[in-house]
Every structure is written in C-alpha cells, then in structure tokens.
C-alpha cells in the first residue's frame, strides 16, 4: 500500500492546468480530492508519473444558479454540496445522495467532479447526473465542449474525457417545483459502495406519474438510465403490480459483477427492490 | 479525632481499589496522541524492509531474480530463502510443533506468502524495489476446500513432510493430514446414541475470520555487533516467549536479546505467534549492522498473518424425549492453512475445544479433531478467545437450539433443564475439565426476567402469523446463548508453550514515600492493565492506585511471564499480583508490629494500614510502613519492601454468561436490524466495572462483526477475496448495535481474589447469540441450520431457499 514515485504540480489557473496536462502527456493525471485516485495509486493499480492538483484553480469552485440551471464547479466537495442552501432548495436529491457517499472524512475531500469523472461504476453521482439531465463542461487545449451525462460513460473507467481534458463544471436543469425524488442505496456499511442503488426523479399529476427518470448505480459497468422501467410507471399510480413491472424492466438491463456484496442474482434482485422503494418514496414526496 | 478524619468509606474510596470504576490511566496518553507504538520507534540509520509476496496459492518457485531490484535507488539488499539457509533460518518452528517457511523455499503454499525481503533506506524505496524483483512461478493445483484435503488425489502441499507418518501430535493419516486429537469415551457415547430417544446431527461451520487489530504486526530489530546484542521492539502479546524463541532459533544467548513491546494497538491473538517479518528484520539487521523496521500493511495483515477459526464441526446430541441430554459427539475438521501455526499451549492441538460440552450436564461425550493443510494462510489463532473456546461455544450453543427445535421446546427452557446445577461444582465434565464454580440458573433466569423473554416470544409468535398472512416482510429472531468459558491458561500440570509452564508473574517494589512500581509478565494491548493491576494492589496493601506505576513489556525489567491472550491475565497474573502484594503486606505487618511495639498477631488490617486490635488509635498506615521499611526495620530484618510472585494456577477459571439478541430481518433484501442485545456476564470478582463494560462492548462488537459478515474468503483458485477493509466487514459505530450489560458475581473459589477473565467472554458468547437469532428467525419457515456469516445476501439466499422470496 505504498504508491510508486510521481511528481506533483499545482497550477494556479485552468489554462495552466490544461497546458500542463498537455505537456506532460499520458503519464499525467488530474488530482481532485484524491479519494479514488490515491487508493488506486497505493495499490499501484494506477501509477501516474505526474499529478496535476486542481486545488489551486479557483475557477473550478463554487455553486451558482444561472436562470433555471444550477452550475456546480468540478472542485466542489461533497461536504460543500451538503452545506449549500441553494442545493437544498433546488436539488435536494443531490444532498440525499451525497450524504450516502462514504463518511464525513471522505466527503470533506472528495469532489463532485472527481466522482463523476472517475468512471467507477460504484460512484453514486453518475447515475443521478443522468437522471437529472446534467451536462458536463470539458476543457482541453482545443477549447471547451459540453457532454450530456447520459453520453459520458463508456465502460468501467472509460469516459468521454479525452486525455488532457479537464471537467470544469456540471450544469443541472432545476427540476420543477413539487417534483418527487429519492435515492435508495443498499450498502453493507458506512463507507461502502452500493450493493445496488436507484435514483428516481418524478412528477405526479392527479395521482398519476406524469414524468419519471430512473438511474441505476453499480449494477453494470457503467451507470444506467432505466428508460423502460421509467416508461412502465408513467401514467400509473404505482400499484404493486406496476412497481414489480418496473423492477423487472430495470433488472433486465442490469449486469452487475459478483463480488463480496453478493452474487449476480442477489444484486439484480435488490436492484429491483431499490427501484421500487425509490419510486414509492419519490411519489410520496411529490406534490 | 477531629472532623477532618476521613471515614472508612472515604479511606476506601481514596484507594481506588477493586470495585472502583477508576478511569483508565493509559487513556491520558492515548487520547492525546502520545502513545508510543512500534512505528513510533525511529532509530538513527534505520532501514526498512518489505516483502515480495506470492500472487499464487500454490506454485513452484522456479527462480528469483533480484538484479533489477538492486538497481533501484535506496535498495540495499534482497533476502531470499537461499540467504536465510546460510544462517539456518529458512524455516522456523511454529508454536504448534510444525515448521513454517520464513521465505518461500522451492514453493509457495498460499497467496501472499513471503517470497523475498527487500531492504532499503526508506519504505518507498523498499516498495519500488519489491516491484522489480522477478519471480518465475510454475502454478500447481491449489487445495482450497478442507473437505477435499484428505482425498486420495489431493495435491501434496507439504513436500518437506514427505514420508513423515508422525507429526507433533501423533500419527498422520494422509499427506495433508496434520493431527488427530481424540478425547472422551467413545463406547459409552456410542451406547448413549444407540439408546437415545431423540438425536440431532448437523455440520456446523465456523468460518475463517481474522483478528485484524487496528495496529498491524510490526517490529524494529537492532543488532549491536560490538556487544553481540539484539534488541527487538515489536507488537508482541507475549514478549518473553518471543525472546526465548529467538534465542532458540537464532542461537543467541537469551541475556543478549532484549524484547520490548511498547504500546500495542490491539492484538486479539494476532500478535502471539512469530512471523517471517520478525525473522527477516532480525537477519537484515544482523547482516547490515543497522536497525531494520518491518511494518505490515492492512492487506498483508489480513491475508498473511494469523487468521482465526475455520472449524467445521459435525455435531450430534442424544437426548430423551423430555429434553435431557444423554450424549454428545463432535467431529471437527480443522483447516490450518499451509502450516500449523496455531498459538495453543503445546500439548493442545485443538486448544481447549473439549469445553464443547458447554454449560450442560452431559453424562458422556466423545470428540475427535482432524487438522488438515490447505493452500491458505497459516494459523489459526485464538481471536479474542481462549484457545478454540469460541468455536466450541458456537458449536454447542447452535446444537442446543437445533435440539430444542426438534423437541419443540423453548431453547431457554431446554438449557435450564440441562444446566450443571450449583451444587455440582466443582464439576467434572465428560471431556475432562474441572469447572471451578458457576450458578447458571440464576444468570439465565435474570436474563429472561430483565428482557421479558416470555413477552418477546409472544411478540414473535404474532409476527410470524402476520408474516404468513402476508402483512409484513420482516421476520423476528431471538438468539439465546449461554456460554461457559475456560480461561487462565494455565496450570503447569496441563499447559506449557514449548516446554515453558504457563505461569505468570508480578514483581512489586515499594518506594519509601508510599508509592511503588509493579512489573508483570503480561502485556496489555488495550485491556487497561496499567489501571486494573494497580487497583488490585491498592486493595491488597492499602496504597492508592494512583501511587502504583504498572510497567509491562520489557523483558529486561519484567519478570518472566507468558503474556496476554486467552483471557489469562487476570486469572494468572492477577493472582500473581495479589500474591506478591500479600508478601509485601506480610513483611509490612512485621514492621508495623515492631514500630507499634506489639506482637504481629495483635495487629489487624484496616483498609490502608495496620491497627492494634482493641486499641483503635494505635495505627500505622501502609504509607508510613513503606518509609519505615527503608530506615527502621526490626533487628535482623533486611531493609526494603519488595516481592516477586510466580503464580502457577491450580485450575482454570470458568466465566459464564447469558446473552440474548433480538433481531429483525427483511427477507427481500436480507438486511437485518439488531433491535436489542442483552449481555449478562459473570466473571467472578469485578476489579473495575467500567473496564469490564468496555471489554464487553468491544467483544460484542467483534462477535457482531464475525457472525454477521466478517470473513476471510477464498475463491476456488485460492485468491483471497476479502483482503481489505473494503470487503472484510469491520463495522463502524453506525452499524454497531446498542449493548445492554448486566452481571452476576460467582467468585472463583481457587483464585486469590476470586476473579475470572472477562475480555473474551463477549466474543465467545456473542457469536452464538447472533447466529441463533438469525437461525431462530428463519426456523418457522422450515430451516434447522444456516451457516455463518449471516450477511445480507446470505440471509436473502436463505429466505429464497425457504420459499420466502420469489
Ligand atoms: C472509503 C471510501 C469510500 C467511498 N465510498 C464511496 C461511495 O459510497 N460512493 C461514491 O460515489 N464514492 C465513494 N468513494 C469515492 C469518493 O467519493 C471519491 O472522492 C470520488 O470517487 C472521487 O472524487 P475525488 O475528488 O476524490 O477525485 P480523485 O480521486 O482525485 O480523482 C478521481 C479520478 O477522476 C479524475 N479527475 C478528478 N477530477 C477531475 C476533473 N475535474 N477533470 C478530469 N478528471 C478529473 C482523476 O484524474 C482520477 O482519475 C469512496 C472513497 C473512499 C476512500
């Protein structure tokens, strides 16, 4: 559990960071909170020759509202998300999810940018970003571009990030007032990644589901949008049979790995349960 | 006498002696980050060592190339088995009479086995170096399942034992067989089963787990070439034993070896044995002439240093229809991994597993244990239990529940019916122990009363009905556990380690001002000895505990002792302390008699000094006696006031307890909630109730972890899949249930202060309580036994197998 040798850089501006990454090439990695990257380095599963620490770049910090969009700087920590009045008001599901990530120590350091850029199927934020229709702003030598969360994840640890690109901010459209939401996460203990988790954002009209999006965490090599499951509940009042149908539709797209959290069959089964519970809890919260 | 004269109560309280909830004196430094652990030892020029480890469970080592590693800046040397052979240290003896490779000699027998030791100027360079050591392996078929170890075609693991049909504990039946251990009367037991009206039989497994102390195993070795002396700072639960072992295997005179165990961050059995890291660091220091530090990381600790349990216990009980037990038969398959590195007293290959008759009056019993080798890490140690007592308690407590279920009896009632009765003590068990004392019925009834056991059973019945009607998806379980521990190893008539009898010792030296120092052969790893040992002395000789400094862990200054594990410190060293204190008191009485000008027999002890019988104002305090001991002793008496006691206990002590766990399980996810946990412990005389409570909390938390998910698991090829705290279940404060503690007091009749051990009781008694709760929850769906650990997915799987989930 001792990392290999590396050199450390701390640029003061985004431009410098981008340039450094370009100059240093493939052997360089951005460093955010370090709570995914450093453990991998300690196991020598990651052996970057250069770390480019983004903590000196002020532009990457902060939470602001821009009309109907919340813009969150990539270097915003999970703790800051939990402390933000703006997030509490507009995106309460973000706080519900952040509070289920690891423990306070990890949340003081871990950033939302690192969480979504990491590409680990166990991270909780990515599926939620898909459900919320978030856009990721990426900056590289060639300029800036926006990639929707739903197109960002390509495989375990493979994302749309090009080498040298930095994720600078995340834009999330504010869900309509009165929306219902829930993040249901089954884990073995505090600090554990999800055995299975489901994110739901929905709206109700006249006792029936009007809109719905469902995301799944750690049930596939990438986060998933369970579109069929969401469609199955639209127009219903979430009767027991409908919930089961949604769970089955969600299970149909899951392909988790067997690990110490349980065999594939179990993880899929509880994935379905998380979907049902999240739907019920979200509906209960919707106005 | 004026108003300021303290009352008897005040004088007693001022001592902070036995029975006082004295605050832990060691916590002053621990809570301020001022502890001094092995990793705090930093010596000038100190080097660092780290291991190249095997990625394979079973492979032949074809070659080890170190050239590239030696080119890494800072790397000074790489030690392999070939190097160690030049000093005859490629193999080392284990405490269980086996031998173990220090570094891979020709082959590797478990994943993460030590293959080479890289020595460098710092820890980073050592790690860079070990990544450059090239080892060529030829993989061999791994043997993971102990039940296949003695198959005809099972791979040969221990080529070094080829042709050896006898091991340290008698004949070997197979190339992967270590020993067979048999106790009890087979014929009588067979007869009991033939005549039995009711029998049960179940294979009850206690899975492999690990003590995983917060601080991993580590040492600093420093060899002084000029003096020819070796100093070892290490995380040792038994420093003197380590000194003797080092002396025997390194052929160094014992007085030239200094073993120092500084503050230790938890041991739980993990730090009793000797590990390759110690040998390699010592050899590295001898070779380089510099101090060498070796510190395990968490993965190494979990995967290479001693595991615990891995006992597979086929258990049968014979009984009458009314529920009187008439016979017990147990066969254990014991998986020891690649080397038998158990840390048991030498003549006890399965520890004290023959306590398996538990708290019950079995007229006859028969036990056999077969130890086997597999391609797993060597062990297994007693993880917060006296040797194999946890396994035994789990075995009998689970089996009693299974019998109750078969008889349609309440498990608590069945136990009450079969308990050894108070008047039967001292009780001779069918498997050879003499239980010193106990009052099981009182403890059990108190548990049932305080928890309102009857009401809980009623609630369970109505919830079961509701479950069957489909109104709830939760099932409720009540886990009863009544354990008898056997601790305090041990009497020289049956316990030794490598030929050294398992006494323990105390040396007390009083200073002129009424203060003193006490040194012991034990070694606290968190148990609070500095606090409690002083309390015993305070009560015995009437000097405030605050004035007694307790020192342990330095073999140069401490009297020889066998160390701390197996809940032996209070039963053995605690007795030595009382005996040494009584020697001090006896001399003090002579001094007091002289000073008060009366005959010794005219004096009586009064809290903190001697008083002349019938003349209450003629009193000499112990504090004043200490002063007198250094300037005005009676003619002919040597000055000074000190005493040493080496205590060879006449018997073990037998703490016991009644536990109840109330658990709810969601069958759809397997998620459980411990609603309530009640633990009544009887450890005889209670020295410090607060420390006892702390010990019970800690042990119960471990028991909870073990029963509910803490496991060292291997896949089919012998890869460890639970090698870090990401997967090895270590509960946090959030998962840990609330503990309710209670007690009864049945003093040990043979112990000078009537005390028994307590540190391990909660681990021993807790595991069956949790497991019985899970099993009890599922029993109405038709199951008799579900194996541990009971983590979420396994609970769900049980529910599914029983048809409770689709
Ligand atoms: C004990 C423990 C438990 C945990 N449990 C959970 C959990 O339950 N759920 C969960 O979601 N997470 C969990 N985590 C992970 C934690 O949330 C991490 O903080 C997070 O995954 C990564 O964020 P970071 O800021 O620490 O990123 P880092 O570790 O610094 O970086 C992660 C990766 O993203 C890249 N990166 C970071 N920032 C950027 C950027 N702005 N642009 C481009 N690339 C970037 C890095 O180069 C690296 O490859 C846990 C971590 C620990 C140590």
Notes on the protein architecture:
The complex is a heterodimer of chains A (287) and B (806). By secondary structure, chain A is α+β, with helices and mostly antiparallel strands. Chain A folds into 3 domains: 7-51, Uridine Diphospho-n-acetylenolpyruvylglucosamine Reductase, domain 2 (2-Layer Sandwich), CATH 3.30.43; 62-173, Uridine Diphospho-n-acetylenolpyruvylglucosamine Reductase, domain 3, CATH 3.30.465.10; 180-285, Enolase-like, domain 1 (2-Layer Sandwich), CATH 3.30.390. Helices cover 34% and strands 26% of the residues of chain A. Chain A contains 11 helices and 14 strands. Chain A has helices at 14-24, 37-42, 78-83, 85-90, 92-98, 104-109, 112-117, 125-132, 227-233, 240-253, 264-285, and strands at residues 7-9, 28-31, 50-53, 63-66, 69-73, 135-140, 143-148, 153-155, 158-159, 166-173, 180-186, 196-205, 208-217, 224-225. Chain A has a 5-stranded antiparallel β-sheet with strand order 4-5-10-6-7. A 4-stranded antiparallel β-sheet of chain A has the order 11-12-13-14, with helices on both faces. In chain A, strands 1-3-2 form a 3-stranded parallel β-sheet, covered by helices on one side. In chain A, a hairpin with a 2-residue loop joins strand 6 and strand 7. In chain A, helix 9 packs antiparallel against helix 10 and helix 10 (240-253) packs across helix 11. The longest helix of chain A is centred in the last third of the chain and has 22 residues, at 264-285. The model of chain A has no long low-confidence stretch (mean pLDDT 97). In chain B, helix 15 crosses helix 16 (622-629). Chain B is globular, with a radius of gyration of 28 Å. With 806 residues, chain B is α+β, with helices and mostly antiparallel strands. Chain B contains 19 helices and 35 strands. Chain B folds into 3 domains: 8-35 and 504-647, Aldehyde oxidase/xanthine dehydrogenase, molybdopterin binding domain (Aldehyde Oxidoreductase, domain 4, 2-Layer Sandwich); 38-140 and 216-264 and 271-304, Aldehyde oxidase/xanthine dehydrogenase, a/b hammerhead (Aldehyde Oxidoreductase, domain 3), CATH 3.90.1170; 307-489 and 652-801, Aldehyde oxidase/xanthine dehydrogenase, molybdopterin binding domain (Aldehyde Oxidoreductase, domain 4, 2-Layer Sandwich), CATH 3.30.365. The longest helix of chain B is centred in the C-terminal third of the chain and has 28 residues, at 569-596. In chain B, the strands form 10 sheets. Chain B has a 7-stranded mixed β-sheet. In chain B, strands 11, 12, 17, 18, 19 and 20 form a 6-stranded mixed β-sheet that branches. The mean pLDDT of chain B is 96. The chains are: A alpha+beta (287), B alpha+beta (806).
């Amino acid at each position: 559990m001792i990392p290999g040798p590396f050199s450390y850089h701390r640029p003061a501006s985004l431009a410098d960071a981008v340039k450094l990454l370009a100059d240093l090439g493939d052997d360089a990695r951005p460093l955010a909170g370090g709570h995914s990257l450093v453990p991998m380095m300690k196991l020598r599963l990651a052996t970057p020759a250069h770390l480019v620490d983004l903590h000196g770049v002020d532009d990457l910090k902060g939470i602001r509202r821009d009309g109907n969009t919340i813009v969150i700087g990539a270097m915003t920590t999970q703790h800051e998300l939990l402390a933000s009045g703006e997030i509490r008001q507009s995106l309460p599901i973000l706080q519900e999810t952040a509070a289920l990530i690891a423990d306070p120590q990890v949340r003081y350091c871990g950033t939302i940018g690192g969480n979504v850029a990491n590409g680990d199927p166990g991270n909780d934020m990515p599926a939620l970003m898909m459900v919320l229709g978030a856009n990721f702003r990426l900056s590289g030598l060639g300029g800036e571009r926006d990639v929707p969360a739903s197109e960002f994840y390509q495989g375990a640890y493979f994302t749309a990030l090009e080498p040298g690109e930095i994720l600078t901010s995340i834009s999330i459209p504010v869900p309509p007032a009165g929306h219902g939401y829930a993040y249901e996460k089954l884990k073995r203990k505090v600090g554990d990644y999800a055995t299975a988790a489901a994110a739901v954002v929905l709206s109700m009209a006249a006792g029936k589901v009007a809109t719905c999006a469902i995301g799944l965490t750690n049930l596939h090599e990438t986060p998933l949008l369970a579109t069929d499951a969401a469609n199955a509940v639209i127009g219903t009042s979430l009767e027991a049979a409908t919930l089961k149908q949604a769970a089955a539709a969600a299970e149909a797209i899951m392909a988790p790995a067997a690990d110490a959290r349980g065999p594939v069959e179990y993880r899929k089964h509880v994935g379905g349960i998380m979907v049902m519970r999240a739907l019920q809890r979200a509906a209960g919260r919707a106005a | 006498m004026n108003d300021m004269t303290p009352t008897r109560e005040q004088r007693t309280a001022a001592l902070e002696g036995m029975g006082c909830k004295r605050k832990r004196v060691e916590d002053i430094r621990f809570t301020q980050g001022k502890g001094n652990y092995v990793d705090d030892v930093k010596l000038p020029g100190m080097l660092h060592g780290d291991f190249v480890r095997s990625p394979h469970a079973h492979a032949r080592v074809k070659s080890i190339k170190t050239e590239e590693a030696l080119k890494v800046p800072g790397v000074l040397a790489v030690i392999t088995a070939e190097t160690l052979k030049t000093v005859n240290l490629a193999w080392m003896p284990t405490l269980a009479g086996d031998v173990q490779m220090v570094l891979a000699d020709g082959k590797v027998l478990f994943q993460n086995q030590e293959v080479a030791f890289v020595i460098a100027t710092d820890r980073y360079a050592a790690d860079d170096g070990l990544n450059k050591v090239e080892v060529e392996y030829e993989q061999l078929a791994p043997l993971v399942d102990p039940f296949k170890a003695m198959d005809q075609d099972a791979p040969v693991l221990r080529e070094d034992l080829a042709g050896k049909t006898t091991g340290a504990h008698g004949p070997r039946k197979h190339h992967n067989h270590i020993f067979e251990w048999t106790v009890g009367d087979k014929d009588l037991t067979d007869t009991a089963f033939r005549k039995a009206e009711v029998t049960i039989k179940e294979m009850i497994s206690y899975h492999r787990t690990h003590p995983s102390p917060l601080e991993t195993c580590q040492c600093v070795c420093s060899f002084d070439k000029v003096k020819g002396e070796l100093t070892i700072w290490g995380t040792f639960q038994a420093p003197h034993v380590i000194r003797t072992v080092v002396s025997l295997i390194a052929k160094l005179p014992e007085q030239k070896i200094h073993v120092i165990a500084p503050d230790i961050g938890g041991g739980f059995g993990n730090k009793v044995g000797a590990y390759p890291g110690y040998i390699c660091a010592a050899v590295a220091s001898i070779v380089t002439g510099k101090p060498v530090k070796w510190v395990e990381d968490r993965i190494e600790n979990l995967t290479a240093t001693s595991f615990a349990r891995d006992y597979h216990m086929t258990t049968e009980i014979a009984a009458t229809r009314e529920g009187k037990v008439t016979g017990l038969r147990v066969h254990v398959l014991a998986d020891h991994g690649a080397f038998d590195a158990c840390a048991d007293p030498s003549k006890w290959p399965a520890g004290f597993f023959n306590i398996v008759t538990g708290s019950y009056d079995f007229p006859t019993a028969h036990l056999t244990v077969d130890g086997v080798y597999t391609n797993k890490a060597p062990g297994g140690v007693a993880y917060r239990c006296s040797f194999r007592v946890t396994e035994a308690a789990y075995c009998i407590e689970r089996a009693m529940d299974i019998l109750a279920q078969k008889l349609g009896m309440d498990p608590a009632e069945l136990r009450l019916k079969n308990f050894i009765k108070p008047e039967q003590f001292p009780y001779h068990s069918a498997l050879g122990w003499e239980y010193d004392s106990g009052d099981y019925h009182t403890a059990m009834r108190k548990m049932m009363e305080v928890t309102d056991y009857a009401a809980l059973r009623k609630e369970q019945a109505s919830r079961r009905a509701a479950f069957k009607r489909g109104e709830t998806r939760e099932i409720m379980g009540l886990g009863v556990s009544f354990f008898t521990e056997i601790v305090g190893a041990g009497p020289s008539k049956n316990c030794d380690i490598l030929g050294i009898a398992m006494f323990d010792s105390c040396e007390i030296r009083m200073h002129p001002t009424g203060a003193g120092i006490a040194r012991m052969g034990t070694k606290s790893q968190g148990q609070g000895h500095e606090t409690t040992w002083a309390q015993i002395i305070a009560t015995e000789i009437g000097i405030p505990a605050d004035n007694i400094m307790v020192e342990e862990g330095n073999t140069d200054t401490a009297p020889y002792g066998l160390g701390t594990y197996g809940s032996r410190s209070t039963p053995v060293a605690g007795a030595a302390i009382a005996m040494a204190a009584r020697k001090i008191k006896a001399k003090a009485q002579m001094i007091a008699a002289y000073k008060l000008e009366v005959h010794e027999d005219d004096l009586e002890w009064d809290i903190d000094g001697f008083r002349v019988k019938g003349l209450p104002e003629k009193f000499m305090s112990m504090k004043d006696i200490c002063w007198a001991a250094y300037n005005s002793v009676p003619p002919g008496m040597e000055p000074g006031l000190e005493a040493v006691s080496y205590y060879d206990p006449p018997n073990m002590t037998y703490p016991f307890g009644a536990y109840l766990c109330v658990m709810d399980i969601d069958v759809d996810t397997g998620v459980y909630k411990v609603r309530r946990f009640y633990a009544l412990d009887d450890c005889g005389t209670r020295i410090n109730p607060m420390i006892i409570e702390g010990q019970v909390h800690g042990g119960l938390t471990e028991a909870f972890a073990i029963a509910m998910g803490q496991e060292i698991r291997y896949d089919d090829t012998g890869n460890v899949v639970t090698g870090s705290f990401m997967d090895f279940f270590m509960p946090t404060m959030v998962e840990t249930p609330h503990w309710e503690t209670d007690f009864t007091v049945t003093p040990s009749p043979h112990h000078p202060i009537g005390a028994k051990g307590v540190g391990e009781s909660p681990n021993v008694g807790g595991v069956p309580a949790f497991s019985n709760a899970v099993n009890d929850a599922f029993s109405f769906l038709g199951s008799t036994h579900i194996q541990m650990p009971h983590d979420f997915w396994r609970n769900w799987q049980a529910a599914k197998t029983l048809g409770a989930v689709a």
